[in-house]
Each structure stands twice: as C-alpha cells, then as structure tokens.
Amino acid sequence: MKMRIFILTGLIVLSGACNEEFLDKVPQGQLTTDNFFQTEEHAIWATNAVYNLMRSFRVHVFAYLGMTDIVSDDADKGSLVTDANFLRELDDFTYDAGNLSLNDTWAGYYRSIYRANLAILNIPEVPNMDENLRARLIGENKFLRAYFYFKLVRWWGEIPLILEPLSSDQFKQARVSVETVYNQIIQDFTDAKNVLPIKYPSAEVGRATSGAATAFLAKVYLTLGDFSKAEQFALEVIQSGQYSLYPNFEKLFQVEGENSSESLFEVQATALETGGAGSQYNQVQGVRGTPNLGWGFNRPSDDLVRAFDRGDPRRDATILLVNEPLPDGSDFVHDNVNILNERYNQKAWVPNHPGDIGNGPGNIRIFRYADLLLIAAEALNENGKTDQSLTYLNQVRTRARGTRNVLPDITETRKDVLRTLIWQERRVELAMEQHRWFDLLRQGRAAEVMIAHGKNFIPGKHELFAVPQVEIDLSGGTISQNPGH
Amino acid sequence: MRNKAIILLMGWLFIGAFLPNNLYTQSTIQGTVFSSDGEPLIGANVLLKNSDSGTSVEIDGSFSINASASDTLVVSFVGFQTQEIPVGNQTTFQIILLDDSEILDEIVVVGYGIQRKSDLTGSIASIKAEEISAISTGNVEQALQGKVAGVQVTPISGRPGEGAVVRIRGVGTLNDASPLYVVDGMLLDDISFLNVNDIESLEVLKDASATAIYGSRGANGVIIISTKKGEYGAETTFSVNVFYGTQSLEKKIKIANAREYALLANELSVNEGRSPLFDNPESFGEGTDWQNVIFQDAPMYSIQLSANGGSERSTFNISGNYFRQQGIIRNSDFERFTMRLNNTYKLGRNITFGHNLSFIFSKNQFEPGVLGSAYSADPTIPVLDSTGFFSNTTINAPVGNPEAEFFYKDDNTGTGYQLIGSAFGEYNFLKDFTYKMNFGADLKFDQSKNFVPVFLVSPIQQNQQSVISVADGRRINWLWENTISYFKEIGVHRIGALAGVTAQEFIFENLGGSRRNLIGDTEEFFYLQAGETGTETNFNSASEWSMYSYLFRVNYTLMDRYLFTGSFRRDGSSRFGSENRFGYFPSLALGWNLVNESFFTNQDIFSRLKLRASWGKIGNDKIGEYEGKPTVTSNLLAVFGTSEDIQNGASIVNLANPFIRWEETTQSNVGFEFGILDNRFTGEVDYYNRTTNDILVAVPIPKFIGADNDPVINAARVRNTGIDLKLDYRDSFNKFNYEIGGILSTVKNEVLELGEGKEEIFGGGLGVGGMLGTRTVPGMPIGAYYGFQIAGVFQTEEEIASSPNRGVEVPGDLQFIDVNQDGLIDSKDRTFIGSPIPDLMYGFNLALDYQGISLNVDFQGQAGNELVNAKKMARFGTSNFETTYLNRWNGVGTSNGEPRITNGGHNYEFSERFIENGAYLRLRNVQLGYTIPTSLTDKIGFQSAQLYVRGTNLKTWTDFTGYTPDISSNSVIAVGIDRGVYPVAKTISVGINATF
User: Fold this and answer.
1) What is the pLDDT of residues B609-656, one digit of tens each?
2) What is the ipTM of this complex?
3) Distance CA A409, CA A207 (A)
4) Do the chains contact at A111 and B706, CB–CB below 8 Å?
5) Which residue blocks in B794-920 are alpha helix, DSSP H?
6) Which option is the CATH number for B21-100: 2.60.40.1120, 3.40.50.2300, 3.30.565.10, 3.10.410.10?
7) Is B596 on the interface with A (CB under 8 A)?
8) Fewer CB atoms inside 10 A, N or C side of chain A?
C-alpha cells in the first residue's frame, strides 16, 4: 500500500512538473530581442556594433584592398608571388564570379548594413531616452549605411537596396537602379548631416560628424558629375572652419596623426593586450620578412613610384623600401629574397604594439581634408571658378612640399589641363589610401588607364565587379550578373 | 423474457467452454521451475491450460497450484520456451525451461521493455556482443560499420577515440540525422564513452513501430544498448580481455615529388604569365615526402578485467577497462579508463532495485592541423634547413612546415570525467503490473588546454606571444522515467501494455579564458595565472533544454499468430516556441506468424515465417537550443575617443525563426522474416517508405540579408524508400561449423518539395571562393552535386572560337558542356553531376569453426555514390600537386581530361573534374582464433581461453584517390566532400579472451 502511494506521488509530482515553466528555457547570459532596445544604452550599443564592423576583415582589410588599390594601377598584389591567388586574379582581371574577395566584401558590407538597419528601425522605439541622443544615433547609423552603399554601388552598380532588417525568408530581392541607390545615399547623408554634431566631446571622437556627412555629399555629387552640388558641399565643409591640413604629411599617417585636424572621418582602432579592438589593416600590408610586421600585400606599383614628381616628399612618405629605416627608426626593412622588388605601403605602417601583429592599432583614414580640398578644386574647375580651384589645389601642394623647394604652385588655367593636374594631384596625395580605383571609374578613364598599365581590362565589363555567384544562386535567381561576367 | 433466457444460456455455455472439465477432483501439486543452468525462474507463470487459474514461481523457484489429473500445466517465462506438461497422477514437478535463444526466438530489447522476437511487429536488428567486440576499435559506432542492413556508418575520422556518423535508413532530414542512443534506459546523443567490451546486446530500431515510442527523438532511428549484467545465483566468473594492435596508414595520396613539383610549378608560372620558379627542375630528386613526416605506425591496445555473478537476491557485474590509441598522425593520442558497476538487488518478492553505473576518465591529445599542409607543402624544401632549424616552406605556397607544427603545437589536450548511469526501482503488483522508476544521469566535466609558445618559422607560421587557453565544460543531463507495464497471458492471448511519464533536462555551461606571455613554456606553467595580467580574455556561457513526455504502448498476440502493436507519445520540448511546443507521435503495426497457422503445421521446411507491417509518425527535434529565440550578441566592441576607449556594442548577428515547428517523419514498413530447415537458413526483408515533412534546414541565405548564420527553417519534404535484406546460412557437419551471412540495403532519396517560396537550396562551400557545390531541388536526392559537365579540353584557339565558351578560356582549359544550349557557357549551364547517397550498401561475412579453431571474415562496401575531391579545388598558392596533374594538357593533343595547370580560375569552377566514384569494397575484418581445449585450460585454472589474430580495415578496393572513401559530414546538404579527413587506420592486432 505504501508502495502504491509512492508510485502515485511520483506520477503526480511528475505530472505537476509538466507546466510551461519546465519547458520554458531562455537563452542564458544573452540579451534576446525580447529585452533589447529597451534602454538608451542599448541604442548606443546597437550603433557601436556597426562601428565594430568598420575594423573587420571583410569591410576594410584584405579583400577590400584587393578591390581598391590592388585592382588599380597604384598597387600590385605584393607578398610572395603565389600567395592569395584570389587577389592576384583581381590584379590581373582574371577573377570570376566565384572569387573569394567578391564574396567576402559583399558579405561584409551587407552584414554592416543589417546592423545599421536594425538600429535605424528600433532606436525610434526605445523608451525614455534623450531625444537629441536618439536623433544623433539614428543619424550615425544613416551615415554609416550611406557609406556602405556608396562603396557597394561603385563596385557593383545595381545592387539590392536593403533598408530594413530582413528575415530569412525575404531572400528574393531584386537589384535596383544605380540612381535609386544614389538617391538613398544622398538621403541618408543629408539626414545625417542635419542631425549630427559638428564635434564630439573627446571621449566620443571617431563618431560620424555633420562635417563628414557633408564631405561625403560632396564626394557623392562629384562621383555623379553634379559639380555644382559637389562644389556647394565641399565649400560648406571648408567654410565651416573646423578642418585644416596637418602640417607634416608623413606624420599624418603615424600615431600622432590620428584624429588630427585633417580628419573628416577615420575608423578607430587600438591594440589592447587582449585584442578585440584592433584591425588587420596594418598587418596585411606590413613588412613581410624582417622586421616581421606582416603579410606584405598591396605593393605600391612601379607606375605609382613614377607618378610622383621628382622630389615630392610624399613618395617617401607613401612607400617603404628595402633598406629604408622604419618611420620610428627602430629598424630598417631587410631584403626578403623570396619577394621580388619588395615595397610596402608606408601609410599603413604602425609601430610595435600590444598583442600580435594582427592586432593593428592604426586608425584607417577614410576621409581626409586634403581629399575634400581636391574635390573642391575639381568641382570649382569644372564650374569655371579656376582661381578658387587653384587656391585649394595649391593648399594641398604647399603642405606636401613642406620646407623643400619642390612642387611649385600650379597656375594653369586651361580647364582641361587643370583637370588633369588635379587628378594627378589626387593620385599622389591620396595614393595607397584606397581612392584611386574609384577616381578612375568616376573620371571615366578606368579602361584607358588600366589598358595602358598593361592589364587585361575589358571595357564594358571590368568597370563593375562580378556579382558573387553564390548570391545569384541563393537569391533564387532574382539577382542578375553584371554584363560580361 | 425469452430473449433474456437465451442470452443467459448462451453466456453460460460460453463461459463453460473455458472451464476445466473436472472441477471437482482437484488436488494440490507442487514443483520447481529452473533454467537449464540451474537458475530459479522467479516469476515464471504456471497456468492451467484453458483456464484462468495460475500462479507464479516463488523466489526459490517453487510453485504450488490446485489441479486435476486431466489438466495441462502451461509454464512460461519471458525469454524461455513455453512448456506444456499434462498433470496426470504426478504431484511434484521439476521443470526446466529452455532458453528461447536456443531456438532462435530470442528476447529483443525494445523501447521501455523487452519482447520475444517472434512477437515483434517492428523492424529491429539485434547485434550480439561478440560481433561488436570483434573489431579493433575503441568506438562502438565504428564497430557497427557493415553490420546492420539499413545502417550506414561513416567514421568521422581515424582520429583516436573519435566516433562515427550513423545514418539509419538514409537521410530523412536536412538537419542532424544521427540516431538516438538509449544505454541502459538513459537517452543520449553520444556514446563515445562506451567501452565495447561492456556491451551485452545492441538493437537497432528502424521502423516507426519500434521507434515511435521515442516520439520526437526517434525519427532517425534508435539504437538501444544494454550493458552486461550478472545473473542471480550464478557463480562468480572473472574475465580478462586483452588486445594489442598496430595501426598504419592503408595508402598514401599520390602527390608529386620534388622533381615533378618543380616541373609543374614552372609550367604553372608560365601559364599564369610569370617566369619559372625553378632553374632546373630535373636537378631535384624525390625531395620531402611530407606525408611520411606526419604519419606513423601507432599502437592501440585494450585491457579489460571483469567479474560477474550473483546470489539469490543480488547480481553484480563489475569491470574495468583501459583503452589507449595513439594516432597514425603524430601527436594524436587517446586514452580512456572506464569502470562499470551494474548491480541488481531483490527486496522481498516484488521489489527490485538496481543500478548501472559507469565512470569514465578520458584524455585526448590533439594533433595540430597538418593533414592539409602535408598534402600541399612544397616537396622541394627539406624538413630542416642547413642550420638544423625548421625550413620555411611558405615561399611558393602559404603552407606551414608540418614538422614545426608538431614541434610547437604539441600541447593541445582535453581531459574528461564522466559519470553516467541509471538507478531504478521496480515493483510488481497485482501480479501482472510492474511499476518502474528509472533515474538516469549523465554528468560530464571536461577541460581543454592549449598552449602555444613563441616561435617564428616564417611570417605565416609564427606566434609572437606565448598563449594559454583553458576551457572547462560542465554538462548535466538527467532523465526521470516512470512507467507502469502490464503483461498477461490468458490462454491464447498475450497482452502487454505500457504507460509512462518522463522528463529530461540538459544543462551545459562552460567557463574559460586565455592569457599571453607565460612565465614558462613547460607543462607546470599551463595555467592562466602563469600568464601576464592584462592579457586575459574570458568566456562563460550556458544553454539548457528540457523535454517532457507521456507514452503509451499496447502489444497483443493472439495464438502466437496474430500480432498487434500500437503506441503513442506526446512530447513537449523547450527547443520550440510556445506556439509549437507539443508534438504527437502515434504508431500502429500488425504481424502474422504464418508458421504457427494450422495449415502450416504439416510441413517441415519453414521453421519461421512472419509477415509484418507498420506505420507511424515520429519527430526530430535536433536543432539548437534556442533556434526559435533571436539572441543579441554583445561585446561587439567599438573604439572611440582621443584616449581610445573601448565601448560595448551589441546587435543581432544570427537570425532566428520563432515559427519553427517539429519535423515529422511518417514511416511505413512491410517486412518478411523466414527460417528454413530448423532455422539453418534465415532471412529478413523489409521495404520502407519514410517521408519527412517540414524538414528543419539550416539554409544558406543570400549575404545581402546580412546574417552571419544559416537560419533554420521548416523547409522541405523528403522521401526515403528502400529495402533492407539480411540473409544467414549456418550449418555444421561433424565438428565443423560454418555460417555465411550478408546484408544489403538500398536507399532512394528524393526531395519531394521545398518550403514556401523555395525552389532550391544550395550548400557546400568549395574551393577558395566558397562556391556552392550542392543543390537540393524536388525530384533529386538531398545535397546532389551541382556543377559543370566536361566535354574535354580545348586544344586550340579555333576550337574555343567555334564552341560555346565563357570568354575566359585559352587552349588547355576545360570545355564545359552547354547544357541549356544557348551558345554560351555560364552559371546556367551547371547541372547535376553526382549524388552523395549510395544506392546500395552491403556487407557479408563468413565464419568457420573447427574444434576450437575459428575464422571470421567480414566484407563491407557501398556503391552508386560520388565524392568530391575538394582538396584539389582549393589552391591558395603554388602548393603541391596530386600526381593526376602530370597528365595535364601542355600542348595540342596532350590531354583531353586534365586541363593545363593553373592555381585557380576557369578550371577550378566546380565541375566533373572534381567528382570521383565513391564505390568501395572493404575487407573489414579478418580474425583467426584458437580456443584452448578445456582439458588444457582446466589444468591452468581457466574456464576458457581464446587467442586470436585480427586484421581490421586491411584493404579497401576503390577508385577514390583520397585516403578513404569514408567521408562524413554533419550537414546533409554537404555530404561526401573530401577536404582532407584523418584516415581510418589499418590495424593488425593479437588478443586473448579468458575466463576463470
């Protein structure tokens, strides 16, 4: 009898346990969508998570360099001849739609866009938060989203324009026209410009500012060939008085030049002992061999070496050669017998730092005031305002020459000739900073220059990259391929 | 009124028909019931035929019953042959029941109980202990390979201690398709802890009638394992089982030597528009064979001591085992110590307690990742350079020096402590009812440690700061089961019923961290505190899931001829959102023992003949714990400020699907069993049809969606149909016994439809760029290979110009077939170029025995599947070449198969070039044994002793060029893709089994 009571009790206890509570298991130690975007802090975190990806391998590191400098006439793949074949394919225009660089970059940028979209969608609903902060954070996310799309549209042309976080079943998205993408980019940069602060308190430096958004508008319009708008926004930045050229061109790319007076926007990185806050941007371009600083990719091309005027100090500040002392004097570049004609991107060089070499502390300079000045110069020249154009162009040259008796002021007034001189100035001033490829495309002379450079560039095809085949496959065929690929 | 009288009369007549004839001359008779080995058969039924009076046997084996002379005693006990004995004038009986297995009607372990094999309606394969322990492996799953029709076993790898991927009746899911394991009642997903020698029996439950009682966890089949127990009243027996073996690599992959490499690398450089790498390829000889550097012959051994026996009221089985397997790749090593204690205790007449406990200590040493580098490292470079230091192997290809990897990365270990087992209590009441409470637990604590010192071999093979990583894991998995079962034989009726409630919870938590710049490089410093403060990282995460179920089953057997089984289970699982939390899983089955029909009594051909049919629904819940709950990832750090401060970041990184619901499999099975000539020739054939609805799939989605993961959705309907066949013939003349057996199974896998909005599912990232090489669409098998067909190699520019092309080809490149005939080659010309699912799997064995000398030979194989040589597809630099490259095109007419050499581009698009035939036949096991005659063993105090020599995986006949055609995968949409698998070794061993 006792036993039967025992059994009965057992069954009852067990049955009683069968309530929802026993089967309700929530993720441990993690926020879920149920309790996220509930506080001001969450809104900040969601925004920071977008900045987080700006340091990531897929956004600003390896394939990125392939699709900016290496593909252009400024740089060769570098490193050992056979290492990273997929970058060589970009260099040689032999890549196809299966190329790893294309997949990686596409994925990296859209992942970043997802995070920005998530923040843009949810921050308006966060209860009890400071309205100025709310507007600013939304503005930052729009800025970042526009930044990502501005890259994507120049790489691939028509692209899926995703403006809110999609769910997994929304995989059928069509490419939209380039014009539509640009309209969105302009909208986002404009929204950002209107709400973002001119400056941040020192603890928040590195966040997107209204100046940066304005500068990007200038660049976008320049890309679109709308020179009057380009001029308007470029001058707005100049006239804000917030920015000035950093006196020492070489030091601008060293630690002391981070977040300088010249900085419109740069990706913030630092080397913690524990890692997690650096980027590999420095490592992949670092000296391969002795001293042991990196992988040695993105080699400044012979053509770039020749592009500098005799005595232009920027050449030495841009290119690190064998036997040249490192910028901090700690060592010199030893010859690596396995690499022919080695050269490195000095602008990506960083001194010794905590953590291993993958923990690069160097901020990635995205938009410098010099770039903006040259945009102004170019737009003004196109708009027939030669004098003003020359003023800004020569500001850049003045800083570049430093104390040397080189790089005389330009006085050319013929529009076409001046245009070429401005383009040349852009090339040497911004060399190895991942602008060249976009400039060539914008200027409509990618085919001409690249063919002259000896590359197997097919006009009408290689202006745009191939859409990753994986994306075409996975979209159920709603994404099409670019012409020629 | 009249009607009532008729009913009463009829009722009386009806009852009367079942009443004993001589009601009035009863006397008390007494007796005992024992088994043939002298064990009292407590609880055996003693009934009077055609009556409902009966009794059961007491603890001392005795019984008493009132009966008359004309009665017939029917004595039965589960697991024994029923006997009928006319009472006559006898008043005392000494009855010996013969073991059922002696007539091949063995007892089969089924879910939550046991059943006679003759009463089974489900498709269940039983494996005997000897069959498993006859393979030289430490892993039970691997021992099953080729043993059971319908079960495909693919070793995950040959890494010491590693398990296998087990698929029962094909792949019914796109998700985790591995079966549920039930070890002594404990439900588990992993049985790597089990010591092969401890296993008493193993049953594979294949059809829905057998598995539906496991509800949502039964859809991929169930493997029930019982470990060895003692016997009541048995003398204590000690056993020793020892074997020692040597493992070696069966075959190397054919890759180029230094001279060939230099030649090919030069040609490649020229093909890619660069100058040759080597001045004089002919000056190189054989160079370095990096495969020789990483592989070794390695020992494997096992020592088992055990004792078992029992008293009248208790049984025991205790065993201890030490197993050690060093790997055929250097620096890999596995040791395991297991202890087992299985006891039962009788408390009074109706109560039994027992426990099956096992303690396991295991230690793993993991080799560094050298398999890929041995395949691709530059053979022109010696292991050590002229200074005696490790050579820089990264000049022509980014491939580290494997020898240096071994040297610097030899401190990667895992240790585990596991306590696993169950304790149960059983209470018999009201004669036919048994209440059983079972509490099972699997507690596992493991720790991994990885230390890497500072070293520099080359820029891509270096570590600038020493680092120690430590991780502790804690897993608690408990199961509480309460069942009431009923069993009764009433005349020609045999009824069994079961009802139960079970709950299970699984809790996992880990904790770990790392630090850099240790104060020492030797083992005594492998603790976090030996690292530099400020360099630490840490993590701590946890997950939980729970399940709650009700289960019911009824078995009914009429006249030993007609069989019926019905079962039902309701499961609730925390893995599913509250909308879809509960699943309902019924099954029905019928069986017909034709051989017991009266019209079959006058024949002596068939000793067994049974038809069975079953239908049921089962579920699969094998998804992550929180797939339905979108989580937010923190620690997405951002840097801001002039002083470079770190700020937290958080976002959704992985997409979740809150609408996720159960995956449901409906399985029908028709089976036929026969035994001919006193069961000398036996066989079983089953046809099954398994359709899975709402398959849970981790589906790759376009990257423009922006998720990092492949979210799980209920996406598809898949059907598996096939036949499982098992045939055995055994006979003897004089003292020569022999047995020939074989199994064969076919699988046809077909996707019926994909979920809403999906026309296709791509999978399987291949090559450097992660090309998708499988495509799953309705009408095709899951994960079929999808790429270009090859017409040949373009010989001339003219040929390219006059053929459809991609616009990138030059002479020497592959010519793809223009499948859609639109005049150009593009991604739309890809088509299905192979299936990873074998049409046919088979095994056969031969066993001979003559006066103590025995020979067992097992073969096993499969046919009709393809494999992908993905190793060859991914070239990050001018790494080494398979020798197939020597047949390359290098001028008109030189090759129409292997293209010109490049490191990437057109010829590395996924095409038939990388598809290979996956068929193989393997000599799985050969064992020659000698049993020492008892006359001799008696003298040395042994009961029995057997010595043997054994070869496992001696030879595999296959066209596949990789180490092994056993290529496993956890993702069913990326199966058979060989990216370099630690090969399973060939093992030759000697051993002894002795009892005393």
Assistant:
1) 889 899 988 887 777 777 777 788 888 999 999 889 999 999 988 887
2) 0.91
3) 35
4) yes
5) 797-801
6) 2.60.40.1120
7) no
8) N
